[in-house]
């Protein structure tokens, strides 16, 4: 399986709430670099996704423009909720982010998500969710 296909399979497993399968795509030393000041480990990342999907059970991840180069895959990520509609940020625009994924062999070692400058409010919402998760 290509690295881009692995990233797509991870998104699919998360959408299906198959966290055991999602974990299989992540290295034990996986690190999520999100919008917060602290990075999340593999268990913390999966817990964050479970919390988001508990609050938004029809959350979907649309990956576009995947580009695989060496041990890295970049993509454009758009969050959506069903029925298919964009998950809006506070400004009414779809919640989108750049995504960079690093690999060692066939497993994902790092995932970095960065919201575009016009969506700082959405980034701050994600940061607040991460902070709440760390406190629980």
How does this model look, in words?
By secondary structure, this protein is α+β, with helices and mostly antiparallel strands. It contains four helices and seven strands; from the N terminus they run ααββαβββββα. Strands 1, 2, 3, 4, 5, 6 and 7 form a seven-stranded mixed beta sheet that branches. It is globular. The N and C termini lie far apart (36 Å).
Ordered list of secondary-structure elements with their pairings:
Blueprint: H1 3-15, H2 19-24, E1 26-33, E2 40-41, H3 42-55, E3 59-69, E4 72-81, E5 85-86, E6 96-104, E7 107-114, H4 120-135
Parallel strand pairs: 1-7
Antiparallel strand pairs: 1-2, 3-4, 4-5, 4-6, 6-7
Helix pairs in contact: 3-4
Strand content: 35-45%
Instruction: Characterize the biggest β-sheet.
Output: 7 strands, mixed
Distance between the termini: 36 Å
Radius of gyration: 14 Å
Would you count the extended β strands for me?
A: 7
Helix content: 25-40%
Counting DSSP H or I runs of 4 or more residues, the number of helices is 4
String of helices and strands? HHEEHEEEEEH
Précis, in short:
This protein has 136 residues and is an alpha+beta fold. Helix content is 36%, strand content 37%. It is globular, with a radius of gyration of 14 Å.
What keyword list fits this structure?
alpha+beta, 7 strands, 36% helix, 37% strand
């Amino acid at each position: 399986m290509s690295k881009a296909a692995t990233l797509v399979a991870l998104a699919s497993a998360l959408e299906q709430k198959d966290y055991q399968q999602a974990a299989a795509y992540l290295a034990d030393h996986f690190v999520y670099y999100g919008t917060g000041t602290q990075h999340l480990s593999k268990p913390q990342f999966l817990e964050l996704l479970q919390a988001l999907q508990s609050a938004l059970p029809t959350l979907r991840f649309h990956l576009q423009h995947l580009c695989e180069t060496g041990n890295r895959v970049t993509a454009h990520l758009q969050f959506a909720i069903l029925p298919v509609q964009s998950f809006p940020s506070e400004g009414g625009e779809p919640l989108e982010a750049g995504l960079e994924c690093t690999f060692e062999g066939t497993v994902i070692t790092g995932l970095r998500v960065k919201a575009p400058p016009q969506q700082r409010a959405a980034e701050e919402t994600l940061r607040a969710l991460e902070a709440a998760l760390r406190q629980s």
